[in-house]
Amino acid sequence: MKKILFYSDTEDFGGHEIMSVKIANYLSTLKKYEVEFLYRNKNISNQLNNRIKTYFNNYKDSTPFPFVKNLNLFKILKIKKNISFINPDIIIVCQGNIELSLKGLIASKILGKLTVSYIPYADNFKRNKSYFATLRDFINKYYYSLPDYFLTPNEFQKKNILFQSKNNNISIIINPIESISDNKIIFNKYKKISLGIIGRVLFNPKNHLITLSIAKKLLSENIDFEFHIIGIGKDLKKFRSIVIKNKLHDRFVFHGWLEGEDKDKIISKNVDIVLIPSRVETGIPLVVYDALKNNKKFLITDFKEIKEYKLPDNFLIDINDVESIVQKIISLNNLKSVDDYIDFKNNLYTKNSVKNFKLQIEQAFRIISCGQ
Fold first, then answer.
1. Cα–Cα distance for residue pair 118/316, rounded to 1 Å
2. N-term to C-term CA, the chain
């Protein structure tokens, strides 16, 4: 029996952490693996099943500029000692990008353990106009050389990893959709358009501030609307303050962090269109699954990362053109035909089924285990 340790030191809890939990939970049901999890965010521990032994990580991800701040030798050696005590055969380092959970990646390599990077986003920082992008991309080439294997959610990210690393030991594990709703969908036109923003409140990747420009444009068009914000994050307090400063507080409802049935209830009752104006995504985000599960229309940034999913044009937006976003919102509110929506939904459910998810996990870890 192989002992597998999942390592995470992020204080965030979003799509990647949810997927790490799902993979760990399924692996723990397979008799050939003993699964343990070294975590930082307590939401991870709360969602792991009782087969998985857990350990709290005393050392958190160091941000901003984790490519430098995570190179803390004292903390790396402490983490190395903790991992050595657990003594796993394989370590899965849950990295949002190559700079995150970096202390665990380095500690694993120092120990000579079979090291797997579970990384959903492998694009370079120059493309996203990040601070010190050229320097970071240069340094990160070394970090990409450390893992023995990579796990990633789609073909686009696999190509990104191959651009960053000569290591072609890469397995795809999709983000699964766990249930499908009845296809008897009816799209209605509403006098008051309710827009939902779901997920971590982080200005840079999630682009929450664009809602202010959208709100002002909708007001100028005399269109009644309301934003429902579902989620928490480090920029939530500042976001509330900016909304109030712009005298839009009567147009925004903040629901906090919701999960499961509580989240679905709010989406089903209060949201007409789920808006996903992110600057960065790894592929189809789990927020789209929330929309589909509740038979809600959605608008998402037209990323290269989602081209393989062939979304209908009326569900795609250009975040650099607020006026066009508002027109898409108005058009989608008026949309009655459900054919394109149902076709996309059924195709995604087929491709990203739970069955395929489980098969990919089994195949990936069979390959990884043989490489030890």
1. 28
2. 13
Helices 15-27, 286-293: crossing angle, 10 deg rounding: 80
- What is the pTM (predicted TM-score) of this model? 0.89
Rounded alpha-carbon distances, angstroms, from residue 101 to 59, 145, 161: 10, 15, 17
> In angstroms, what is the C-alpha Rg of the chain?
21
Name the nearest CA neighbour of 335 among 314, 313, 312, 310: 314
| Token code pair at residue 34 | 């003993």
For residues 284 and 175, the answer to whether their CB atoms sit within 8 Å is yes
Task: For the chain, count helices (H), then strands (E).
Answer: 15, 13
The backbone region for 106, taken as left when phi is positive above 0, alpha when psi lies in -120 to 50, beta otherwise, is alpha
Which helix (H) or strand (E) segment holds residue 301: the answer is: strand 297-301
Residue 72 has pLDDT above 80, yes or no: yes
Instruction: Express the helix, strand and coil content of the chain in percent, nearest 5 each.
Output: 45, 20, 35
Mean pLDDT of 81-106: 96
Check: CB of residue 44 under 8 Å from CB of residue 37: yes
